[in-house]
Amino acid sequence: MADEPIAELGNKTPLQVARKPYIDKITAAGRCGLLQTIPKEFGSGSEIANLSVLGFDVNKVYEGRGVLEAASMGVPIKQGEMAMRCNLICIENKKIKNHSAGHITSEEAAELIQFLNKELGSEIVKFHSGVSYRHLIIVKGGNKQIECTPPHDVPGTPWKDVLIKAKIEEAKETADFLNDLIIRSQKLLEKHPINIARKKAGKDPANSIWLWSPGYKPKMQTLLETYDLRNGVVISAVDLIKGIGIYAGLQPIEVEGATGLVDTNYEGKAMAAIKALKNNDFVYLHVEASDEAGHEGDVPLKIKTIEYLDNRIVRPIWEHLQTLNEPVSIAILPDHPTPCAKRTHTTEPVPFVIYRPGHSPDGIALFDEKSAQQGYYGLMKAEDFMYALVDMNIIKEMYHKMKLKYKEFRGK
Question: Strand, coil or helix: what is 167?
């Protein structure tokens, strides 16, 4: 939901314009700052940003988006296999029109992916269907030393200009194989009945796959191990986020009607979080709608998604917390900016607020990109965020003072 000043909003951002009384209420009670979620050497992908927010060193654990989504989908990654994200996209006049095939439905997409697996699948490559336009392929013996372009980064670009390239000579065979799959998919998808029907209905066809973000199975410590959390859950409509959660040791919770778009089941997600708090130390609740509005370049829609987040998720959770007899900390933040003018992710720091019962507020009353600059935390590195939220320094100080080993302290 982070953005840049927009002329039509009087050079304000959607966060500055949106009506969000409950997010602002938490901000006034908490402490703010800016968080650098994208390390300099990485692109501004959601996988990088969310891994960073959860405290992982992406230099050590990052293996691409595909393997994370595979975990959510229950697709095992074996030794010698490479996973990749497989988007269904729309190409028009030889250019990438959008990264989502007009936000194709999961039902339509599943039929197309099954069709492609029948026509293009083999002992070497398998297609697996996911949600909407987000899917997966597994390649045996694939070399991940290839340069791939996320389709949401290049709308309006000729597709041939951003095909896969080998970074090293040994990866050329893999790059050529994957590019051939993309080209063959276009011939197959163009004449599929689903795409014929979509065009007749004035919708964008899913007339190409797009392959990107290769990797092997990662090795990651769980959040439970790192931050001494007994248990936790992840709530999201997006396989990528659920996959990160699974590797982080979190239990995914499925919410009926969760779509990743503006029509998602906000109330269902809020209720799932409230229920999870009864028996879990940690809840990671993710809403994709503002990001998709940014990719569409739709300013009014982005403002609406922020207001929905405030009223339909933050409000019921905040009101529920007031009825509890135990303290609960809250953090609210985007994973990365998706400016409507650029229609893609950027690497700028994002505003965040951490509310901890008993902590004095920093005097910032509004949650937005500009106000957060004056907050208590200043500009924070991603690796420090989870420690601030969990307040590990206080915990460590307590058990050292008690002269107890960590496990003994935890028991008391």
Answer: coil
Rounded Cα–Cα distance for residues 65 and 87 (Å): 12
**CA–CA distances in Å: residue 331 to residues 107, 318, 353, 407:** 35, 12, 6, 27
Mapping DSSP to helix (H, G, I), strand (E, B) and coil, where does residue 262 land?
coil
Residue owning tokens 């089941």: 265
Query: Are 128 and 236 within 8 A, CB to CB?
Result: no
Pick the CATH number of 7-62+218-411 from 3.30.1360.120, 3.80.10.10, 3.40.720.10, 3.90.480.20: 3.40.720.10
- pLDDT-based confidence at 406, cuts 50/70/90? very low
- Buried b or exposed e, range 116-135, using 16+ CB within 10 angstroms: bbeebbeeebbbbbbbbbbb
- The pLDDT of residue 396 is above 70: no
The residues that bridge with 126 in the sheet, in sequence order, are: 138
Q: Is the pLDDT of residue 203 over 90?
A: yes
Q: What global pTM score does this model have?
A: 0.77
- Rounded distance, CA 333 to CA 56, Å? 17
User: Can you tell me whether residue 326 is helix, strand or coil?
Assistant: coil
- Listing DSSP states for 291-315 in one string gives HHHHHHT-HHHHHHHHHHHIIIIIH
